[in-house]
Amino acid sequence: MHAVILAGGKGVRLRPYTTALPKPLVPIGDQHAILEIVMRQLAGAGFTTCTIAIGHLGHIIRAYVGNGSQWGLRVGYSTEDSPLGTMGPLLTMLDRLPEHFLVMNGDILTDLDFGAVLRSHEESDSPLTIATYARTVAIDFGVLTTEAGKVVGFAEKPSMDYRVSMGVYGLTRDTLNGYTPGLPLGFDELVLDLLKAETPPAAYEFDGYWLDIGRPDDYDRANAEFTTRRPALLKGV
Q: What are the boundaries of each domain within the chain?
């Protein structure tokens, strides 16, 4: 099984932490970078090879990860010279990828079984599988519904439930045929194109533990919870 880790972003939301460190290398707890946790999890889920798409401060990621042998992985790299969006980096490495592979952001902390996502994708015959997570968004205002200049509905500080993308995907190589290598391609553009073509992505619903550490609040929470969550996140370590 092969995984592509997207690690080329600048991590603007996490400054000043990311001024000198790429976002996937910011520390979680006292001992581990988030990327190390991800690499250990991939190896534990049965992945043997991995490509890391690097850009901003990519030389530091290369120095830290090396060839991946310390985690039992064979790691290669793809360099992003200019921002290509979420899916754009994949277009430059398509000829090196297997028919089905995992794609994930390099800045998420989760106990999701990455191998299960890829196996589910292979069995689904869908062009893309999106790991999804339930999020509740609280609105701190009274919400009005208006029509023709009149208030016709009111809700005091409601909350709204959504399923959001976790930044983990199962992808089939042929799904990216027709897009131009070297040009930006966003996750949003790909999903909208698939919906327009009536070939919708599959959803892999997950209700375990997931944080996007690119968000400052989630990063602080990850550090506060890591000690108690460590057995689930780093099984056998």
A: 2-233
Long-range CB contacts (within 8 A, 24+) of 40-46 = 40/71, 40/234, 40/237, 41/114, 41/233, 41/234, 42/3, 42/71, 42/73, 42/114, 43/71, 43/72, 43/73, 44/235, 44/236, 45/1, 45/113, 45/114, 45/115, 45/116, 46/1, 46/115
- Other CB atoms within 10 Å distance of the CB of residue 222: 23
Buried b / exposed e along 123-133 (16+ C-beta atoms within 10 A): ebebbbbbbbb
Written as tens digits, the pLDDT of the chain (237 aa) is 999 999 876 555 555 555 557 778 888 877 788 899 899 999 999 999 999 998 878 888 888 888 989 999 999 998 887 778 888 899 989 989 999 999 999 888 899 999 999 999 999 989 999 999 998 888 888 989 999 999 999 988 888 889 999 999 999 999 999 898 888 899 999 999 999 999 999 999 999 999 888 777 788 888 888 888 888 888 755
Torsion from C-alpha of 72, 99, 188, 36, nearest 10 degrees? 0
Spatial CA neighbour of 2 closest among 55, 52, 56: 52
pTM for the complete prediction? 0.86
Architecture of the domain made up of 2-233: Alpha-Beta Complex (3.90)
How many Å apart are CA 131 and CA 202, to the nearest integer? 9
Which residues, 6+ apart, have CB-to-CB distance to 221 below 8 Å? 211
Count the Cβ atoms, other than its own, within 10 Å of residue 153: 9
The first and second tokens of residue 119, run together, are 């196996």
